[in-house]
Amino acid sequence: xxxxxxxxxxxxxxxxxxxxxxxxxxxxxxxxxxxxxxxxxxxxxxxxxxxxxxxxxxxxxxxxxxxxxxxxxxxxxxxxxxxxxxxxxxxxxxxxxxxxxxxxxxxxxxxxxxxxxxxxxxxxxxxxxxxxxxxxxxxxxxxxxxxxxxxxxxxxxxxxxxxxxxxxxxxxxxxxxxxxxxxxxxx
Length: 187
What we know:
It is a single chain. This protein has one helix at 72-78; strands spanning 12-16, 22-29, 33-38, 42-48, 57-63, 91-103, 106-115, 118-133, 139-150, 169-183. By secondary structure, the protein is mainly beta. It has one domain (8-183): Lipocalin. It has an 8-stranded antiparallel beta barrel. A hairpin with an 8-residue loop joins strand 4 and strand 5. The longest helix is centred in the middle third of the chain and has 7 residues, at 72-78. InterPro entries: Lipid/polyisoprenoid-bd_YceI, TTHA0802/YceI-like_sf. This is YceI family protein. Belongs to the UPF0312 family. Residues 13-182 form the Lipid/polyisoprenoid-binding YceI-like domain.
């Protein structure tokens, strides 16, 4: 296996910067177009072990009420029990269980995703996109990721048939992650 060498000084705890990161999703609507959305309110942390990337970890908590597709009426519907049921399930969570080093700055992050009280395993393909020192002296790492899930596996079952055939909302949901994480200074 091709092992990617990452600067050993990058080992440590990271907090994802919410102003420069995105946890998003894409669903096909009416079988003809895609609707994109995100959860702008979240907390995400991780531990990067550069000596053994497979022992790295990550945790993410998304605030369901923050769902944003650019359309307030649709966002309101997504908050109901037809979709995410924000009043009864205010958070979506992910906790890693393992990491696979796939070489060439690519990793597979395996973990447990919980939506509407249903927990299922999921794999996220991540690419390490680089490191930067920001103007405030913070060391940042960048990651981009994708995953695919079936929303019905998590009890998100709303559907409407279309007169022309097909359905209003796809079962297949693509997840998109753009992450800027700040290395925490040792205490």
